Amino acid sequence: MKRPFILVSFFMLLLIISCNSNQDEEPGSFEGSLDQITNETLKELKLKSIEESNVFHVYDLFEVVEGEYNFDELHRSLTMKLNDQTYKLVYGIPVVEQNGIYLPTDEIFIVMDNEEVYLPVAFLDIVLDLEVDVNDDKVVFQWSGETLPTSSIQTTSLIDEEWDVDKMVDYLSFLKKPIQKAEVSTIPNHLPGAKRAYRNGYHEGIDWYGYATGQHISFNTPVLAMAEGVVVRVDHDYEEYSTVQIRNKDLSLTAELGETPQYIFDRLRGRQVWVQYEKGVMNRFAHLDAIPDTLHVGDEVNSETIIGYVGNSGTSGAVNGDGSELHLHQDLLIYGELFWKPFTLDEIKEILVRVFKD
């Protein structure tokens, strides 16, 4: 009759020994615990060193975790779906979008080698919040089938919402003017949706030229952050098109394709700063001439923060060095979609005038 008691005591002893053993391990380390993790949850990816970064092949990731991905070769854009989270990146843009929210990190970017698509290990660590162990040519991580997303915000698509002018004006009313005392231009060519024949596309944002805003604008004109937000992109290391011929080569490709690939579009925007606000609103400030050295990704800003200075980077004026095309361009997005998509040109004009009224 004593056997059950002996067995219970034996298992209690094993439990105590196991607990003491676990206390000796460093938190967050795989050391001493690899044998305890089942093969079903422990995943391994081969690493490759490209451009001084440890990267893994995107295809390999989706061979070991459940999900799906698509790489659009035309736009060089990557879309990945993991556990109800959608991640988007574009080649040449050091920003990752998660469920329409742009994350404050510049460590995630697409790396391409022989037309193959890779991502840095930081995607697993920073974005998926996974515990990773990097050993020479491989990275090991535990995958339970559930990610711990940096942002688990559930978003609503512009397409799914019913919008009218009043609703959009109210939604964007927290934004202040990017240039003090400037009036938003109502010239059709300066507004979203205007055709851009030179690159076979459409104007996606708002142009602030001196002659159309009632204010003198120069290379010394500061650009303000417009509202409380977080900086998600800062192009301190921007490099201008080195020659007119190289820029024209990109434009010739757009003519051949009949549209502007996203990675080329981004180059044509020049030096940029992106700011993520509340309610999924994100602002792309483009064609900047300079950016304060003290501004960094992750910084919190407000309507009085100077995020840059008006310029002409990315334009023909910058490549020619003649000082022309000086203006601020800004794109407003809501959960990754251009705010103006549901509206006519007249409605867009009314929205902007009302949002940026004094």
Keywords:
seven-stranded antiparallel beta sheet, 9 helices, five-stranded antiparallel beta sheet, 23% helix, 23 strands, alpha+beta, Glucose Permease (Domain IIA), disordered N terminus
Q: Your description of this structure?
A:
The chain is α+β, with helices and mostly antiparallel strands and about 350 residues long. The protein has two domains: about 35-140, Copper Amine Oxidase, Chain A, domain 1, CATH 3.30.457.10; about 165-355, Glucose Permease (Domain IIA). Helices cover about 25% and strands about 25% of the residues. The chain contains nine helices and 23 strands. The strands form six sheets. Strands 15, 17, 18, 19, 20, 22 and 23 form a seven-stranded antiparallel sheet that branches. Strands 4-5-6-7-8 form a five-stranded antiparallel sheet, with helices on one face. It has a four-stranded antiparallel sheet with strand order 2-3-10-9. Strand 9 and strand 10 form a beta hairpin. The longest helix has 21 residues, at about 5-25. The radius of gyration is 25 Å and the shape is globular. It starts with a helix and ends with a helix.
